[in-house]
């Protein structure tokens, strides 16, 4: 069975990356792990500057 369904008319959940301070939105590939997603990208996760 599919995970929790979202209404496409509702705004997507949003978080702020602790490294670059940029907001990022929910993505389909993060559907099962959204609660554990902290960083917006692999570069921020590694701590490399943009």
Automatic annotation (TrEMBL):
This is DUF2256 domain-containing protein. It comes from the Bacteria. Pfam families: DUF2256 (PF10013).
